[in-house]
Amino acid sequence: AADKINLIPQDFFAELCEQIIQHLNHKIPGVDTAELCQRIQTSGIEINVGDLAKIADVVSFLFSTAARNSLSTEELVTTLGNAVTALPKHAVQVIRHVWNEHGKSISVSEDARNMATLGQFVDIKWKLGVAMSSDTCRSLKYPYVTVMLKVADPSGQITDKSFEMTIPQFKNFFRQFKEMAAVLETV
C-alpha cells in the first residue's frame, strides 16, 4: 500500500485520514472510497477503488492500533519510520498532523469493537423503470423498481448494492417496511 500512497496527492490523503478518524470515532458510518477515488481520478491521478480501499484499511488499522496502545504522536511517527516499507514523506506528515489533532479522541471500547461486526445502512435510492422491448421480445412493457443501497461494511468501506424487483415483489418489500415502521412506533 505504501507505493500506492505515493500516487495520492497530500490533500486527498489528508481527507482520507480525516474520514478514517471520523469513522473510528463513530461520527460517520464509513469511508466512501468510491466517491473519493472518483474525485482523485477526476484530478488526473490514475488509481483504482481497490487500491484506495487497501490504503484506507492500512491507515485505519494504523490509527486503531495506535489508539489501542495509547501512542503519542512522536511514538507513532517513530514506529512508522522503523517500518519495513517506508511511507512517503507527505503521508507521514499528514498522519502526524491528523494524529496530533484527533488521535486522543479515538474511542477503542470493547463494546464499540463488538458492535462493528455488522454492516451499517447509509443510504437508499430507487427508481421506477419500464422495459419496453428486448432483442427476443418486441413488446414487454412491464414495470420494475431498481433499488440502490449504500452500506458501510465492518471495516468502514462504503459499498453500493443494487437489485431489481417486479411490482409484486416491491409491494411485498413495501409491506414489510410498513410492518417494521409499525413495530418501531411501539418502541
UniProtKB/TrEMBL annotation:
Residues 120-187 form the COMM domain. Transmembrane segments: none annotated. GO terms for molecular function: NF-kappaB binding. Coiled coil: none annotated. InterPro entries: COMM, COMMD4/6/7/8. Belongs to the COMM domain-containing protein 6 family. Scaffold protein in the commander complex that is essential for endosomal recycling of transmembrane cargos; the commander complex is composed of the CCC subcomplex and the retriever subcomplex. May modulate activity of cullin-RING E3 ubiquitin ligase (CRL) complexes. Down-regulates activation of NF-kappa-B. Inhibits TNF-induced NFKB1 activation. This is COMM domain-containing protein 6. The lineage of its organism: Eukaryota, Metazoa, Chordata, Craniata, Vertebrata.
